[in-house]
Structure formats: C-alpha cells, structure tokens
Fold each of these.
Amino acid sequence: MSATSPTDGTAAGRHSADRQPLRSRTGRDGGEAEDSPLIRLLGVRKGYPEGGGVRVVLDGLDLVIRRGESLAVVGPSGSGKSTLLNLIGAMEGPDAGTIGFGGEDLTTLDETARTLFRRRHLGFIFQQLNLVPTLTVLENLLLPLELNGVLNREGRRYARELLERVGLQGREDTFPELLSGGERQRVAVARALVHGPDLLLADEPTGSLDGATAQTVLGLFNELRRERGMTALIATHSTDVAAAADRVVALQGGRLQEVAAA
Ligand SMILES: Nc1ncnc2c1ncn2[C@@H]1O[C@H](COP(=O)(O)OP(=O)(O)OP(=O)(O)O)[C@@H](O)[C@H]1O
C-alpha cells in the first residue's frame, strides 16, 4: 500500500497536490514549482538479517513528498521510521525499489556522490544528535558550511542568527557537554539548518524539549519552509509535532498509510 497512492507515484503526486486545505494551514501560496515532487519512492523494500533470514522492515513503500511540504511519519517504536529517513537521506540503500530526489535516482549513486548529495542538499537531526564534543556550539554549526566550502562572513552571521532563533544566544562558545539535553537538541536543530538544506530529515527533533521550546523549533521549521522553500520529513511519536505538519503518514507492519489531518 502507498502513502499517497496504492499503485503509482505520478498519480500520487497529483493526489497530494490537490490537497488545498493543507497548503492553507501553512500560509503558503503553493505555486506550481513548490507543488512539484521533491522525493519519490517506488516499491522501496528494506530488511535486516535476523536468525539466518531477513526481517523485512519496509515492505514495498510508494511515497511522494512535494517541494516545501512538511510530512510527519508516525508509527510504533521499531516500525521503521528512522530506517525510512536513512534511506531518503542516502545513509543506506534499499534492497529493492527506487528513491528519486528532484529527478535523480539516489540508489544509483556511489558512496562519494551520496556523501556530496547529503552535504549539499540535506540537513539531519539524528536522535543521538551527533554533535562533535571537541567543538564549541558555534563551531558545530560552522562545520556543515566548512564541509561545503562555503564558510564565509554571511555563513557566520546566519549561524549566529539561527542560534538566536532557537534561544541559544550567548552560548556560542560553550562545549556541548556543558549544555542541557534540550540545549544540545537545539544546537543539532540549528546545525541541520545552517547551510540552507533543500530537505530537513528530523528524527524526534523535539524529544528533549519542553512544550514552549518545541513550538519554537516547529515554528522555525515552518518559517524556513516559507523563507527558503525547505521541505521537511519528521519522524515522531509526538502528536504536537504531527499536528504541525502539512501531512501525516503512519508506518505499521512495513507499510505506509496516510493519516487524516488533525
Ligand atoms: N542497521 C540495522 N541492523 C539491523 N537491524 C536494524 C538496523 N537498523 C534498524 N534495524 C531494525 O529495524 C527496525 C526498525 O528500526 P527503526 O529504528 O527504523 O524504527 P523506528 O520506527 O525509528 O523506532 P523508534 O520509534 O523506536 O525510534 C528495528 O527492529 C531495528 O532493530
């Protein structure tokens, strides 16, 4: 079964683009380009070895995500949400199926091309955060810019602006181990956004945050979608996070199902 169409990604894209009320929820005017698919999964399967066999986690997923859309993925623990994010983020490859990103099939890229693709186009917020402990907060934020060879004055200014927008102004020179869990999570949020990614992949991005701070972070995602046309895919157990998304899909038993908007 598909999140958007049981059979065909193209039809699924048209179906999704017809969802006018979803656009008005974020205040976007939803032009043609914004509504075009950014990501297109067709027949994606993924399993892991277990007891001499293979345990299938994702069982033939079809999914279309439009440019500028925010999509929440919900589902029980172990249902494959992180696995789905890892596949779309080209962290690993599927056993079968294709994953299109802006017309390019990620499953055909070699390791070097996948690394470059991730650096240029994606912002990750991992559950484990993956902050570099030997770098300060600001240095952690500058890392994606450095890796992309675009660390300049404007990048430094934007890094500071993002820290302010997540409420961490004044903590630029602090090391991650001296921050609270929620503060560390906000550093990871800002770091994922600093290079202006086309797609944000966020795994439980507000899990360590209080309600008000979580709303600030979700508001920031939506602002960046409006300001920069960013697309967001968010794995979550939180009903608040799901409610802030344009669209919600649920993973269960290896399959995706569209969930009615709240
Ligand atoms: N690299 C791996 N090797 C073996 N099994 C794996 C690997 N990655 C994930 N799995 C298995 O795939 C299943 C799905 O894991 P995944 O982390 O995607 O679930 P999830 O929905 O994100 O869970 P949670 O909500 O608890 O974070 C789990 O049973 C997990 O053990």
Note: Confidence is low (pLDDT under 50) at residues 1-32.
Amino acid sequence: MGTEAVLRAAVAQARRVVVKVGSSSLTGPGGGTIDEARLVALVGHLAAVRARGGEAVLVSSGAIAAGLGPLGLATRPRDLATQQAAASVGQGALVAAYARAFAHHHLTVGQVLLTADDVTRRTHYTNARRTLTRLLDLGIVPIVNENDTVATHEIRFGDNDRLAALVSHLVGADALVLLTDVDALYDGPPSRAGSSRISAVLRPEDLAGVEIGGTGSSVGSGGMATKVESAGIAGAAGIPTVLSRLADAGHALAGEDVGTVFAPQARSRASRQLWIAHATTPRGRLVVDEGAVTALTKRRTSLLPAGIVEVQGTFTGGDPVDVCAPDGRAIARGLVNYSSGELPHMLGRSTHELARDLGAAYEREVIHRDDLVLL
Ligand SMILES: Nc1ncnc2c1ncn2[C@@H]1O[C@H](COP(=O)(O)OP(=O)(O)O)[C@@H](O)[C@H]1O
Ligand SMILES: N[C@@H](CCC(=O)OP(=O)(O)O)C(=O)O
C-alpha cells in the first residue's frame, strides 16, 4: 500500500474523528440561509461514523450566515458587532437544525462554544478537553463553534479551520476532515483553467509552488490558506487530514479517493506548544539580548528577567507574547507570567535579587519553557 492509501485507510478506520464544515458549503446561493438538505446529509455521514463504532466531533461554521436571513441582511456584515449579532441569532438556529437532524438517528448533540483562549490557557484548555471528552463518553455528538459573540478582534480565529485542528488535538482525534465548497486543494485558483487537483500532500515540499488563496464565497472566511494551516497543525500532532467538498463527505470518511489527504509530520511536537504557536495572537513583544537568544534556542531554557531588554505592548499574566531577538526578529512565542506593568521593574535582574527585593512571587521565570515554543 502506498502512503496515500495508508492515510486514507487510517481516516476510514479512525476511532475518533473531528469533522469541520465551512459556512460556504452549508449555505444556499447568496449565503443567507442554511441549506437544510445539505445539513441533513452531513448528519447522515456522522451518524454512519457512530454506527460503525466511531466517535465524531462536529466543528460547524455557519452561525453568522444563518443569522443573516432573520436579521434581514443580504450579505455578511463587515463590522465585528453586526457579525456577532448575526452569530447570536444564527447559532441557536444552526444547533436546533442539527439537533433535529441527529434526533432522526437517535443521537443527541451538545453545543460547545470556544474562544482562542479556551484552547491555549492551561486552565481553560483542560476544562474544554474534559467537557468534550465527557460528552463523547456519554455518547453525545459535540458541535463546536467559535464563541463569536464574545470573541474580540485580537483573540478571534474568525475561520473555524484552525479551531478544528486544535479541537482535534484536544480530543486526541485519529483524523480531521475539512469539508468545504471546493472538491480538493488545487495547484492554483480552482476557477482558473488548467489548475489541477492535488490528491495528497505527503511532505511540505508538495506545497511548493501551490497558489493558496483566500475565500471564494461571500460567507466563508479563511479560504484555502487556513485549511492548509489547519492540516499542518493537526499533522504536527500526528493527525492526518482530508479536505473535500461537503457533497463528498461520505466518500472522504470512507477513505475513498476524493479531495486531498495531508500526511502528518514525522516528528510530532507537544500539542500544547502547537496551540501556543498556532492559536494565539501575541499581545506584546519581549526583546531579549543575544545571551537569552542562545539560551532559548540552543539550550531550550525558560526565559528569565535577566535576558530581557525591552517590553512592548500591553498584556497581563497568561497572555501570549512574542520573544524577539535584538534585531526584532520573533524567535519564540510563549505565555508570559507577568503583566506589561510589572516587567519593566524586573528587566536585567536575577531571579534571586528579585525574590529578595520584591518577594518570592517574583522568583518565577518570565516564560516557563513548557509555555514557550520556538518559531
Ligand atoms: N489552491 C486552492 N485550491 C482550492 N481552493 C482554493 C485555493 N485557493 C483558494 N481557494 C478557495 O478557497 C475556498 C474555500 O475556503 P472558504 O470559502 O473559506 O470555505 P469554508 O467556508 O468552507 O471555510 C474555495 O472555494 C476556493 O475558492
Ligand atoms: N464562527 C463563524 C465562522 C466563520 C466562518 O465563516 O468560518 P469558515 O466558513 O469556516 O471559513 C460562524 O459560525 O459563522
């Protein structure tokens, strides 16, 4: 069996699978309503996974699109507040439609709304993981979406592709399936004559020269770029991804030759570190000296106050920040233990000195090595 066939078989046999469906393939022409027939067909495929003894987590976009009609809007609003209002109206309708469709298969759904914080901050991701795992143990189909109504610009994924990859980490999925409105990854814009389907991405070089563009619809948001990124995030934790159009979902889940399959990378990094690298938007920058660059990159140490020369941005303890070399290049990203107000008083000083002058609480490293990922 070739590598591609092995991967497709792994998807077909996945015990736990995360399936993500995009707004563009769930909505009818114009994008203002959810196409119930497509939703029902998708639910049928997920029920089939359950019927063969598997478990499924559905990550569904479409809240904003589902809210357009009831709000009398013709197109997806551009401003965040109206998008959030649309999501608030649409999310309930969307999950109600899923609950009805799953009930025909005697399956119950549970809604899980997540923000980027929920999959990056230690306490939150542990909670999210526990809830999702418990739902699966109870035989429920979790339906995940971004918590659009509270997410702000800074912390928002916007698309659900990367969120789906992070959810696949959270639940320890065996496969990730991304369903969209295009049948596969193409080597150029799918609308351009001469572009051809890529059936498998087995190594990063397979993406060299591929023109990966933005969304082709009025309701989708990440386009192909966030899907390829999502496959990379899942792959880094050893999880294979299949991308296909919604109409081919059954074939994709059965391991047939549709869409594009992405091989996981050979070396998987700790998934927590991946969340930090891929899920977070840095709230500030810590510029460090050359000694700290070497310590972090060569010796993989924690970041201590002594090596920091400048603090940029406004952040609180627990926020993601970039660590930059003296030339401004971001070399790492991590979750910082102190706020941007506290740090300037600590720069260049040893932890011993800080503990003596400011108290034991200041003995902690600025970013612990477990919370730091090299970029
Ligand atoms: N190289 C490519 N191959 C396939 N599709 C691409 C490519 N570059 C850009 N796209 C566009 O990405 C779109 C899918 O992304 P998007 O609209 O965000 O969907 P979704 O709502 O499912 O997340 C396709 O409809 C297509 O127009
Ligand atoms: N959380 C948003 C998802 C936004 C979106 O368009 O995502 P996608 O279609 O996956 O690119 C919603 O439910 O409308």
Note: The chain has a mean pLDDT of 90.
